[in-house]
Queue: 4 jobs
Job 1
Amino acid sequence: MGLKGKLLGQIEISINGDLFHEILGARPHHLPSMTSVVLAVDGQWGTQGCTTIFKYTQGEKTEIGESFMDTIDDEKKMVKYRVVKGDILKSFKSFIITCEVETNGDDNFVTWTVVYEKLKEEIPEPLTFMEYLFTLTKETVDHLAKVNP
C-alpha cells in the first residue's frame, strides 16, 4: 500500500442532476439549511475560491474541516474542492474532493472522487469520509425533493 490513493463512490439521486449541481456550484450557501453536515459557506458564493466549513464523523468523533472550491465546470457538471484546514489534515497531506453529476433522461447519478495523500502508511483509507459525502448527497436530495416535488 502507498501513501497516495483514490476513492470513488456513486449514488443515484431521485431529483434532476442539474439542480443538484446548481446547488453545489452556484448556490452552496443554501447547503447549511439543507443538511446537518455543512456548517457554513464563506466568500463569493458560487464562484471558485469560496470556502465551505463541514463536519463529519470519524469513528465516534465529530471533526471539522474547511474546503476551498478550486473548480466549477457547469458544462461537465463538476465541482472540485481542496481541503485547506481542519482535522482531516492531521492524517492527510492533501485531500481533494470532486463531485460530478451525470444526467441521462430520468437517470441521475452523483459521483464523488476523493484523491488523497496520507501522512503515514498506517492511516486508514478515508472510507468514513465517503460516507459523509453520501450523507451530504442524501440530505440535499431529500430537502430538494420536498421543496421541488
Job 2
Amino acid sequence: MDGAPGPLRLTWLGHSTVVIDLAGTRLLTDPLLRAHNTLLRRSPPPPRPEQWAGTDAVLLSHLHLDHAELRSLRLLPGVPVLTGPDNARWATRRGLRGVAPEGWATVGDAQVRLVPAVHHDRPLPHRPQDAHGHLLRARGTTVWFAGDTELYPAMADLPGLAGADRLDVAIVPIGGWGPRLSGGHMGPEQAARACATTGARYALPVHWGTLHAPLMRQVGGWFDRPLDAFVSAVAVGAPGCEVVRVAPGEPWTLDLGPGR
C-alpha cells in the first residue's frame, strides 16, 4: 500500500491477545477477554471492554481453548474472525462470522493474510487442528503474528513478505501456562531464532506470564522466567531485533519516519 508508513500501536492484553492499531484499523489476536480460561487461572486481571472496543477484525490462530475461547469471541458480535478454512467453518457454525482469507484480505486500511504455523500437538475432539499465523501490512508497515508454532524452515520466507521488505514487528510466543512446553511451541530460545530468521526489527513476546493451573502461580519461579530468557536469547542470537517489554494493558507505539 502506498503513502507514508502507517502508525502502529500494540497493546498486549495477556496470553496471546494483542490489540493491533495499524493505520486506523483495529485488529485483535486470539481474544481471551474473561477472568479465567476453563481450569486455568488468570494473572493479572482481565482486560477492560474499552481496551478492545472498536475491533474491526479478529485474527484467530487456532482452536485450542486458550486461544479460541467462545465466550470471549462472543463478546465481539458481528466482527469477522479471520482464520484457517476449517476454523472459519467451525466459527460460523457457532454463530460467529468466520472468514478464511485467500491471499490478502482488506480490513479497513490494512491488509491481512494467513501464513503457515506448525502446531499439531494436543488435538481436541470436535475442534479442527488448523493452525496459522497472520501477516499484516499497511502503508509500508508490516507485522507478523506468529500464533502458536514451532520453528519451521519456510519461516525464512513468509508468504507475502517480499525479500526486499523488512518485517517491522514479530509477535511471538515465548512460553506457556506451565513449567514445561508441549510440542508445537517455541520457548525463549526458539522465539529468538524466529526473530533472527524473519529479520524482525522489534519483537513483542506473548504467551507467557498470564495463565497458570490452580495453585501453580508460585511454584518453581517459572511464571515470569521466559521474558528474561527471551531478552538474553535475542541479544545473542538476533542482535538487530529490539524486544518490546510492556505490562498487560500498556500500549507501545512504533514511530516509523520516512527513513524507517
Job 3
Amino acid sequence: MPLAIRLPHHSGVLEADGSYPRALNVLSRKQTAVQRQLRRSGLAGYEPVTQATLLALAQQAPPGSAVYDVGAHIGLYAALIDAVYGHRLSVHAFEPTPDTARICEDIRRHNGLGFELITSAVSDTPGTAELCLSLKGESSNSLNAAHRKHTETVSVPVTTLDAFTEERSARPHLIKIDVETLEGQVLAGALETVRRHRPWIVLEILPSSDHDALGRALDVLTELGYGLHLLQPESPWPGRNRGDYRRHVGGQCRDWLLAPAPLTYDFHHAVRTWLRAILACDERTNLIVPAGVFFPHGWNAPYRSALASEVHDRLSWRKSRPGRVQART
C-alpha cells in the first residue's frame, strides 16, 4: 500500500525560505526497513535528532552550496533536505545497492524532487568493489565483507568525495555519511574537500567500525580544528576528543557531528526547533491508501508562511465571490 509521511512544519523557515511540501510519498509501507519504520512511527520514530541536525545545518547553508548524502539508502534524508531547501541547495545522494537505488530514484521522481542520485559506493580510492548484500537487511549492505553475514555480492563503482567535488566544482556545506563500518575510508577520500570547504559532517559510527582508519582521519580533522560531538536530544552537546570517543560509541544514538566551528546557541536552538516539528510527525499523521488508489486531493499542498497564507486566502475569497450585477435604473 502506498505511504505518504507528513513533513515537519517550521514557521521560521517558511518565512525566510518560502513554501515547501507538507508530505512526502515514500511509495510503500513495507518494502524496506526504512519504509516499515516510517509506517510504524512516521518521521518522529526515525532518527529524529539526526533529521533535526541535518535540517538545521542545511538551514544555515549559503545559497548554491551542496549537500552530500553518502549511503542514502532510499534517499529519505536527501528527499527531506531537497523538499525544504532544494530551491537554493544542490543535494546529491550516493547509493550503490541496485534495488535500493531504484526505490530512491522512484521516490525522487514521484515527488518531483531535484536531488541527484549517484549509484556508486564511496571510499578512499576510486574504481570498483564488491558490495556485500547483508542477510540481516538491505540497510546493512557494506563494502566490508566482515560486517554482516552475506551470501551474495554485487560489483559496484566506487568514487571518492574529493573526486566528485572536483569533477562537479561543488561547494559542499554538509556531508552525511552512513556506510556500515567504513567511515574512515570515506573521510580519507574527502580530506582535500574538508581542507578546502570545511563542511559540517554527520557521521554514523558503529562499534564494529574500522577504528584504525577512522582514527587516522579524525587525527587530520582534529588538526584542522574540527570538534567531535555525539548527537543527543539534550543540548548543548559536549565536545569529545579523539582519544576517548570510542567509549561513547554504541549508545542509543550512533550519529556524531564533526563540526568545523564551535556549536552556538543559535545552532542548538535551530536543532531543538526542528526536533519539536519532527516529533509532531508521528504515525497518526501518515497517509496510507490501497494499492492503485490515488492520494486524496491536496495531500501534498505546500506549507505557507503566515503572510503567504493570508494572501492566498484573500485571493481565493475574491475568486469565489459571485460577480456583482449592475442595478438598472
Job 4
Amino acid sequence: MARVITDSMGGVGVSVTELNQQIQEILSGVGYVVIPDVLSPEMAEEMRSQVLELARDCPREENRQRVYGLIYRHPQFADLVEQPHVFAIAREILGASLRLGGFSAHVLHGGASSMGIHVDYPYWAMEPPFPDRPVLEVQAIWMLEDFDEANGAPIFAPGSQTLCDKPDVKRFDRTARPVSGQAGSVVISHGLCWHDTGKNYTSKSRVSLLANYTAKFIQPLEDFRYGCDRQVLDQASPTLKHLLRYDFKPSTDPIYPLWE
C-alpha cells in the first residue's frame, strides 16, 4: 500500500487551509503544485522496477514508452488512483462525480526527446478558446525517482491555465520552467496549464505514472471496462469502481431496436 500520513481528515494528511491553498494554486496560481513524500523512496523504487519489467512487452517510440492497464497489474497501482491527498484535490476541483480518464506509466529512456508543448485531454481535442469553468481535467504525475533537468523533469508555463488557449511556443519558451522533485513526489496540475516533458540527457530511464482525472461527462482516454481483469474490477473499492465507471458497465440484457 502507498504510505500515507493520516489525520482527522480521513487520511488526507494536510489541513483544510493547506488543501485549499493548493487548490487555488492550481486554479488561479501557477497551475500546479508539488506534493513531496507521498510515497516512500522504497515504494517508489519498487513500482519503478515493476513498470520497467512490464515495459519489456510494450512498443517503444523515439526512446519513449507508455505502459497501460496498470490498475489490473498490481493492487498498489490501483491504490495510487485514490490516494487521499491527491484524490481530495482532484475531487474538490472536478466535483464528486469525477472519473478516471486514464492511468499509465511513461518511460523516458536515455536520450529521449521532449514530447512537445501541449495541454491535457480533453482540451487538446477541442477548439480554443477553452472554457475556464467547469474545469474538465486534472493530472497527477507520480515521480518514481528523483526528477531534475538532466533526466527530463516536466516543464510547465506558470499561470498559462488562466489563458484558456492553446500553447504559444514563444511565450512558453520565455516563461516555462522545469518542475523537479524527489522520488515519491506528485505533481498535480490543471489540464489547461501548458507543459512538456524535458529531454532525458542521461543514460538511465526516467519513470513516471500519469493519472488523468476528468469530469463525469468527458469520454475517457482509456476504457477500463474492456480488456480488464473482471475479478479485480468486481472486488475494487467503491471509490475505484466509481472512478472506473463500474456503474456504467453494459447490461447483459438483450438489446432491442427502437422500432419493429
